[in-house]
Amino acid sequence: MPETPDQDALRLLEQGDPRGFDLAYARHAERIFGFLLRLSGSRAVAEDLFQHTFMRLAEFGARLRVDSDLRAWLFSVARNAFHSQARSRAVQARATAELLPAALQGTTASLDSGLVLDELERALARLPASDRELLLLFGVEGLSHADVARVLDLDQVTVRKRVSRARARLAEALDGDARAVSKFKVSE
Amino acid sequence: MTEVDELLARLRKLPAVALESEFKAALQKRARQRVQRRARRAPFASLASLALAVTVVLYLGWALQFTSALYR
Fold it and tell me: What are A135-149's pLDDT values in tens digits?
């Protein structure tokens, strides 16, 4: 069976070949950075955590099994780095709605509907970090329940329940925004 | 499609976030150096582990021989 690009990357890293790092970096850098930026709400913090994550890959990538799930491993390292930094430096774990849209300037893909996505980013930013990380991993990054469970070190049943709760809270937050906007328009 | 699925679809559409190219390139350079340094160190590390294991076995053998000589 042919190897996936991630398996190629891990095999090269196992052999001490830096092209393995290049391959992994090209495939996952932007997704990991987006995850960290949306999770932390600060570009500076996200850059620190991003460096930490990929330097860990350079340091320990050779020890990973070739059939490891590299994407889940990277999200797991990034997420753990975020939580340990939030604890040690008392970084505000919850991104503020004012901070995030500025931090997200410079997105690569064109926004198909700037206003709608901006609302969504704001609603996401207002959720607790525990809900946000679930929705980022499952919703934004498209990880399966099993992969999310691996990243968060939880069982799949718990992940399903928490994702469902987090989705409900996001929907509530969006409804709240919509009501606020319509109220504003009426009072205008 | 349910409301919840629509919400997930909207989340899925959130764009990737661009990294500053200088930052990205500088990190890549440092990480490549780290990978190469580790690869150079690896053979020495395994030789050192082997030498340590041999030393421990030799020492334990000597200690056993010494102890048994005391009770002879």
Answer: 999 999 989 999 999
Q: How confident is the model at residue B43 (pLDDT cuts 50, 70, 90)?
A: low
Q: Which domains does chain A have, with CATH numbers?
A: 1-112 (1.10.1740.10), 116-188 (1.10.10.10)
Which residue of chain B has the CA closest to A37?
A: B17
CB contact under 8 A, B31 and A170: no
* DSSP for chain B, written as a single string: --HHHHHHHHHHTPPPBPPPHHHHHHHHHHHHHHHHHHHHHHHHHHHHHHHHHHHHHHHHHHHHHHHHHHT-
Q: What is the ipTM of this complex?
A: 0.72
Residue of chain B minimizing CA distance to A57: B31
Is B15's CB within 8 Å of A109's CB? yes
